[in-house]
Specification:
366 residues; alpha/beta; Rossmann fold; six-stranded mixed sheet; four-stranded parallel sheet; 44% helix; globular; binds pyridoxal-5'-phosphate
Length: 366
């Protein structure tokens, strides 16, 4: 669907965009789960269904990023992430469809079932998997791979971690306009709060800016799932302001929005022992939503965010508010694409994720 921001701000039409996903994504009430946790007005935005190939929050960002790469005639998309990254997996799926080669430079992370699944999917879609044991190694490896592919004439294009460039994050300003339309169509009452995962914070920042531009009362609660030095209020505010500045460069009629750290909500208490480390609250939330709503969340991102956001609202005495949970994780089952892959076909550096137990396996064993 052509971006709604092009209608709201026609000067933006000169920006690159190509269709990858299926929008608008549905919005509906989480009646059974909401009742059981004491939030009668709890809704969900189904960005897990943003594409029938691979859903989740990456699709909205990649629609702008891929078009930029195509306009610049690049051939190889290189991105960074943790092993099993959803960003790399999504880029693999859509990159192949759009005729790009894709390379994922990924650093070590805790093992999990989805890490295995995404690595196999990466392999299936032809992603070049490059492994680094830590973050410094990841940056060095990235610089090396970028320079090498440039010199080899592969026309590399850098996609930042999480797809969080101002251009990519326009996808979530657009998503806020999509939500505003759904409110206007009476599909959902105007939310008081949106609960969403915060990693590179592009999703939360785009939504916050979009809600402000649309004059909505809705405020975003970003729930951090990444390292506290990375996912900060400073980054959140800077990102909102940068996206707005970027929009105004193409269309000066976009109102100037300036956010400071005091204007925003970012929860840092629900990450547990670290990125991708499962928490009791996250596990319980995932189980509960699956049981009552038949919607698969995940333990690294969405379970932590929904559980954490509701816990915080409860503490603030705000159970009666209209709350929208923005589901950012893929829910498309792609097991048929990976079931016949032997992990030994993948680079040796990532075999350990298939040979060492996952957190799920450790939990079942204990
Ligand atoms: C499922 C899922 N949700 C949310 C996020 C975080 O989005 P953002 O990086 O825009 O904060 C990610 C990115 O890592 C993700 O994979």
């Amino acid at each position: 669907m052509r971006p709604l921001i092009f209608e709201a701000y026609p000067g933006l039409e000169s920006l690159p965009w190509m269709e990858l996903g299926e929008f608008p994504t549905p919005v509906h009430r989480l009646e059974a789960f909401g009742e059981s946790v004491g939030f009668p007005e709890l809704y969900i935005k189904r960005d897990d269904m943003s594409s029938s190939l691979y859903g989740g929050n990456k699709v909205r960002k990649l629609e702008f990023i891929f078009a930029d790469a195509r306009r610049k005639r690049r051939g190889l998309l290189i991105t960074l992430g943790a092993v099993g990254s959803n960003q790399v997996a999504a880029m693999g799926v859509f990159g192949r469809e759009a005729g790009f080669e894709v390379m994922g430079v990924m650093m070590h992370q805790l093992n999990a079932d989805y890490v295995r699944r995404n690595l196999l999917l990466d392999h299936r879609t032809g992603v070049e998997i490059k492994y680094a044991p830590n973050m410094v190694g990841e940056f060095l490896l990235f610089a090396y791979q970028y320079a090498k592919s440039y010199l080899l004439g592969r026309r590399p294009y850098y996609v930042p971690a999480g797809g969080s460039s101002p251009l990519g994050n326009l996808g979530f300003v657009n998503a806020a306009i999509e939500l505003k339309n759904q409110v206007d169509e009476d599909l959902i009452p105007e939310p008081d709060y949106i609960i969403v995962v915060a990693g590179s914070v592009g999703t939360a920042a785009g939504l916050e800016l979009g809600c402000r531009l649309m004059g909505m009362k809705t405020r975003v609660i970003g729930v951090s799932i990444a390292m506290p030095w990375y996912t900060t209020l400073k980054r959140f505010a800077g990102m909102v302001n940068r996206i707005c500045g970027f929009m105004r460069e193409s269309d000066p009629t976009v109102p100037l929005v300036r956010c400071s750290e005091d204007d925003l909500i970012l929860l840092n208490d629900y990450i547990g022992e670290g990125y991708a480390a499962y928490t009791e609250s996250g596990i319980e939330t995932v189980r509960h939503v699956m049981e009552l709503e038949d919607i698969p969340l995940d333990y690294t991102y969405t379970g932590k965010a929904l559980g954490g956001g509701l816990d915080w609202l409860k503490e603030q005495g705000m159970r009666d508010k209209v709350v929208l949970f923005w589901n950012t994780v893929n829910s498309v089952d792609f097991s048929h694409l990976i079931e016949d892959i032997d992990y030994r076909e993948l680079p040796r550096s990532v075999h350990r994720y298939f040979e060492e137990p996952t957190q799920e396996e450790l939990l079942t064993a204990s």
